[in-house]
Amino acid sequence: MTERRPLTDSGDSPLPVSLKQARLPRWTPPALALVAAGIGVGTGLAAGLTSRIQWGLIAAVLFIVGTYVLGTIVEGGRQAKDRLATSLVWIAFLLAVVPLASLLWETVARGTKVLDGYFLSHSMGTLPDALPGGGIYHAIIGTLEQVGLATLIAAPIGLLTAIYLVEYGRGRLAKAVTFFVDVMTGIPSIVAGLFVLSVWILILGFGPSGFAGAMALAILMMPVVVRSTEEMLKLVPNELREASLALGVPKWRTILKVVLPTSIGGITTGVMLSIARITGETAPVLLLVWGAKTINNNPFEGAQQSLPLYVFQQWQQGSEASYDRAWAAAFVLIAFVMVLNLLARGIARWKAPRGGRS
User: Fold this and answer.
1) Residue 70, Cβ density class (10 Å: 0-12 exposed, 13-18 middle, ≥19 buried)
2) What is the pLDDT of residue 353?
3) DSSP secondary structure string, 60-120?
4) Taking the model in full, what pTM does it have?
């Protein structure tokens, strides 16, 4: 399909102009990426660069420049800028994924050396840390109990606080609550541990326990739950609230039957993100739980172990056997967080409102 240009001042005849713009083939970006990678490796070897990160940076720069130049020549400046932005996004994605993939690969490679049924079903007992053997059963029990107690404390308080701020909060009290939630979001974990240590152990006279660590973890968890839940509740259309209220439904029942079910997926995801954050905390546990080599099923009395503290203590020992146990415990901790996220997605999909008419 063509269009005709108007006659020029010189009286030239109309010239046909194609409306179809030239485009680079689809295989151009992958091929250019391979070429840039080859040139980056060759340049790095020729220049004596031993770091693969430097090779990758050279290849990334070549890929971005090559994409822009080819796009400008073939497709024009406007499309070239679009391809440049796309290339920058892909490079940023790879820069974020490569360290994560490297961490996972290293953890799996080293963690599977001693990870077996015996390691998961036994504690350290009286075994010296420098000798092979032992396991993380006591640490798994401690982590599950401490994180579970922290969730039971923080999740209801955070949910109710978010409901108040979105549905009822007005005036100075709401502003004060919002301010303190913002402040708590940036509190270091060691500060939360010191607060519980000074009040629960030093002033009230209670000893170290898993419950003391759970209270510190709950302090770290609450602002994340409040913020995530608040944003999810704000996404619920006001038309749904107004329709329910117009039918004579009380506000509390509207929140319970309309607002919360509509946003349950995001709320569940926010709670799981907060759980994932506190699961790897070591400082509060070190101050308040102290760690134990034997099994303690009672989180309200006596020292108790947890997975992040176990990893820290085993790595601190400095022996080959303790290093292997630390990597294996880190692998279990990562798997635990991944399972929590999968459960969150399953619950969110199960509880999400159904579309259409039943």
Assistant:
1) middle
2) 60
3) HHHHHHHHHHHHHHHT-HHHHHHHHHHHHHHHHHHHHHHHHHHHHHHHHHHHTTT-SHHHH
4) 0.81
